[in-house]
Amino acid sequence: MRRTLDSVMAQSIPPALWVVVDDGSTDDTTAILESYRSRMPYLQVVRRANRGRRSVGPGVIEAFYAGLETVSVDEFGYVCKLDLDLDLPPRYFELLMERMEANPRLGTTSGKPYFVAARTGELVPEVCGDEMSVGMTKFYRVQCFHEIGGFVRQVMWDGIDCHRCRMLGWIAESVDDEALRFIHLRPMGSSQKGIWTGRVRSGYGQYFMGTAPAYFLASAIFRFAKHPILIGSIAMLWGYLLSALRGAVRYDDLKFRKFLRSYQYACLRLGKRAATRKFDAAQEVVWRSRTSPQVEGHKS
């Protein structure tokens, strides 16, 4: 947490307001946050009662909204969901805003996460597609955030949001520029119970979102050689299969699920980059039907 606080304090353009949610912590979180408040005038702390258990997915978004509810978000141009286990490069927010200003269709963006390999000490990239902003630091244009309806309070919220962006004609991305690479201090897909539990949960999340079985199988095979080798993919497949066998609940927006599968089948036929370009181009008319007058007015 101190590394995250220090890296935000060192930003070339710091946040206008940073709301940190202390989600019922039982360690030194409160004392650490208090020690930084005098040096960070934009830091505001919201404290919640300890729910007595860890709640990944729904709990994360509940905490996010507990903070957002204290903010008049329409007073700002951008909103960022930021985890407290990141070490950000010094121009992180500045460069993301520059990208947003250069492309009015860019609804959400982020850099790429890296983690330090335990055995070698080398920086290793986490697996994340260029067509998604990453869950631990989602930088949003406020208008886009409103239009997609914010975040779903369930596992895979950080995939549903980007696909909803694309469905509505916005562009979602993560960028592997060196100046935007950040260190994730806890590897993606892990949990307090270990990597296996985290990846099984990810498999359920893909099932909940509505991911096509053929696409999910191809994705799992692609990840076989990624960290953790083989085990991560097997755990994801087990989580998806178990959810299907149990008839687990799914995201109830049928129009979204149809769009998602159409996009995923295109990814299988064309490759993800070509499919993303095709869909982004096709959906531009959807975006322009809602935003062109506002964009033209802004330019004038």
Highlighted features:
four-stranded mixed β-sheet, 300 residues, alpha/beta, 10 strands
Task: Report what the structure shows.
The protein is α/β, with parallel strands linked by helices. It has a domain at 2-188: Spore Coat Polysaccharide Biosynthesis Protein SpsA, Chain A (Alpha-Beta Complex). The chain is 47% helix and 13% strand. It contains twelve helices and ten strands. It has a four-stranded mixed β-sheet with strand order 3-8-5-9, sandwiched between helices. α2 (29-37) links the parallel β1 (18-23) and β2 (43-48). The longest helix has 17 residues, at 254-270. The model is unreliable at 295-300 (pLDDT under 50).
Short précis:
With 300 residues, the protein is of the alpha/beta class. 47% of the residues lie in helices and 13% in strands. The protein contains twelve helices and ten strands.
